[in-house]
Amino acid sequence: MATSNHVALDILEKAHPPETASAIFTEKILHKPLLLRPSSPDPNSQDARAHRRLQRLRKKEKSRRRQKPKPLSAREKRMTGIYEIPKKSQKYNIYVSLNRMWIEYTWDILGIVKGKHNRVTAQGAGPMLSSADYHGAKLEVVRSKCVSLVGLKGIVVRDTKFTFQIITKKNELKTVPKHHTTFRFHIPQPGAIAQHGKLEEGKDISEDEMGENALTFEIHGSSFEHRATDRATKKFKQRNMTEL
Does the predicted model carry a pTM greater than 0.70? Predict the structure, then answer.
């Protein structure tokens, strides 16, 4: 038996003929590719740190997409002034059309129909007006602990939790507190407005043009210390007004 330098060929020759052993050795051992796993990179290398940083950024970006945008805080809203009315927009004539829309809105919630005899009672209109939105209402201060506010008239441009912001005919923006203040407003009948034709033209409506059949209401601001959105879903109960 011929000697060989490879131990695998010696073992194969003991079990197979020399030609068969040589063929098996050449095919299975000598020419068989040896696949080696690449070694892991050095964890302290620059490439490894860059790879870990890229993985963190991708994970952070993925979690950011899932999250909803965070709403602004009250302080951020005050700093940005998103609810502030600019000086150029503090014009009474701009909000006359808003008052016209508010009149049509009150007709709808009170069930006032043009051309019919509309009977509105305090028991039926009270709950509706308590939860109504007063953006665009033309209010007048009739009683207040602050005497300088009595007689103030204007259109409500902002209804906050504790105040009404009113734009007057002098193009002045006034902030009126609701607490210990009584407001009055008038709702004209559709027939009286149709005679003057101002509702369609978008012009201001005076109290004399509303006629004698106009509905007059007074609201106590202390009972309206809610935001307009919260007041729409709130159920009001009858109670004695201790401040009267």
Answer: no
